[in-house]
Predict the 3D structure of the following.
Amino acid sequence: MTILVTGGAGYIGSHAVLTLKRQNKDVVIIDSLQTGHQGAIDQDTPYYEGDLRDSEFLDRVFSAHSIDAVIHFAANSLVGESVTDPLKYYDNNVGGAISLLQAMNRHEVKKIIFSSTAATYGEPESELIDENDPTVPTNPYGETKLVIEKMLKWAGNAYGIHSISLRYFNVAGADMEGEKGEDHNPETHLIPIVLQVALGQREKISIFGNDYPTPDGTCIRDYIHVQDLVDAHLLALDKLEKSPQTAVNNLGNGQGFSVMEVIETARRITGHDIPASIEKRREGDPAMLVASAERAGKELGWRPKHPDLETIIQSAWQWHQSHPNGYTART
Ligand code: UDP
């Protein structure tokens, strides 16, 4: 079975490639290296550098390999940037997905696992968000992912391209064996930024608001270990293999932690005092985003193996200590 991983040089994509290869699956990577890292790609994995919007490029890849299924990660994913430059997000995310689905249709590839997001929900109406909750994104990033989910539904009807869209909550942590990790530039996510403070690369962590209606006033998120997240993709592929369908599943642990709790846990793990200051709220941040992952449990048989925050932060800490400059070698 050959699986095409788009965005295989990115944070989640590179962990997916690693897991697929550990399970002896054949993998082909596409990445534009717009945000991915050459250093995240192992030399023995077939890799094509290019843009999904280039259909001739896609034809070359699909003709060179007998691809059975696609896991589609490649996308722009910065919420703030999507607000200031929405057309970039429609062009790259939606345009890339259209072109990819057209190529799949031309080459008769009928299975795709799609990297979606909790940002499709917008401001939540319930404490535990489930897949039947309203989807009213509050930013273009979430909107583009929702558009793609809808496109996948119609593509399923029309062309028999079956899909499972996985709505990620806050993905964090690194490969437990230390082979891959998170490297964004610029980094905007809480856990890697907190760890950069512990490494002495930043002076402090700015807490974006402590006046939210939560017990300590800081925002609550559902952090999910990247390896657990990747496991769900493999289960979703099996599911599509056995029963073709179009489905949407949340991926989270069903447990929320506040920004303060994340910082305190990181202080314990790193032994660093991690100075913090309270700043104003970041635009578009809901107070609390926690998943009900009951459906993924029932439908995919998925159970997170590393649900505790300590393990998630510890694995990220191990990676950041051994790769203080990410995938860029120290000069
Ligand atoms: N956050 C923060 N300081 C930072 C980065 C993030 O206080 O430097 C907060 C952010 O407001 C949110 C939570 O940490 O409440 C998680 O943010 P992140 O960007 O990691 O993920 P998001 O929830 O936006 O997907």
Residues 232 and 256 are 20 Å apart (CA to CA). The chain has a mean pLDDT of 96. DSSP finds ten helices and 14 strands in the chain. The longest helix spans residues 86-106.
